[in-house]
Amino acid sequence: MMAELPLPSLALRELGGIPLLTDDALARTAGVRVAFTGRAGGVSAGAYAALNLGSHVGDDLAAVEENRRVLLAALGLEGASLVVPSQVHGIDLVSVASLDAAALDRARAKAAEGADGLVVAVPDVAALLCFADCAPVVLVAPDGRFAVVHAGWRGCVAGIASKAARALSADAGVPASCLNAYVGPHIGPCCFEVGDDVAERFAAAFGAGCVADDGAHVSLARALSADLAAAGVDPARVCEAGVCTRCHPDEYFSYRATDGVCGRHGALACRLER
After folding, report:
1. Do 182 and 8 contact (CB within 8 A), yes or no?
2. Which of 10, 87, 197, 204 is 20 to 30 Å from the Cα of 19, by its Cα?
3. What angle (nearest 5°) sits at the alpha carbon of residue 113, between those of residues 84 and 163?
4. Which residues lie across from 269 on neighbouring strands?
């Protein structure tokens, strides 16, 4: 019988000089390292200081590559194959199901065409997605398979979290109630002000509870929790970081706080071969 994952939790740790949110119990028991980074620890400068992991924002590409190398080294993942999709605010998922070099190249090429989630079935593949207010979601199955997704408001409303949970559940052959879910730092309901049309779409998709009484502020965390529950994820297995990126622009990149001129922090997951 497959072992049950420990209930998810996130704690601030410094690994290799990089502060990040992670779940050490998950790493010990399932061999999966989940990491939500902030701004600290890299070599980028100016608006991108310091650990910018996004290659599409105007930063020096050599600095971005060094930041990614430093992050992998800090996590003990120097030998892992890195996959970073081109995020397009959609709900397409790319499966990484083989360590064969040609298969990895095909997965990378497909992800580069545009995708907002990776479902990884093999060890030693590091999935990295980048954020600056949107919500990162990492899902982990008991056998160490995992998914990392980008939930901007469009992807959230369209159900990318539940789509990933169903895909991972099917891939691992377990009920979605066995999965752990981690929601990383993102813009909170205190700062996520939207128009009436967007608020109505959230309320229609996930219920009025994710929209504040003023009708203008939305909780992505509540919306994602509702979406994951609809896919069968146990609410007790959903861990939310509880950090608003807009309120903490010195610690996290925030698109809204900087009028769009900023770097990107990351959500990364990888299962080590044991």
Report:
1. yes
2. 87
3. 75
4. 34, 127
| Whether the predicted model's global pTM rises above the 0.85 cut | yes
List the strands of the sheet with 180-183, edge to edge: 93-96, 117-120, 146-151, 135-140, 180-183, 238-240
Condensed to tens digits (0 to 9), the pLDDT of residues 44-81 reads: 999 999 999 999 999 999 999 999 999 999 999 999 99
Q: How do residues 210-268 score in pLDDT, each as one tens digit?
A: 999 999 999 999 999 999 999 999 999 999 999 999 999 999 999 999 999 999 999 99
The CATH number of 32-271 is which of 3.40.30.10, 3.60.140.10, 3.30.200.20, 3.30.300.20? 3.60.140.10
Q: Where are the domains of the chain?
A: 32-271
3-state DSSP: the chain helix, strand, coil percent, rounded to 5? 30, 25, 45
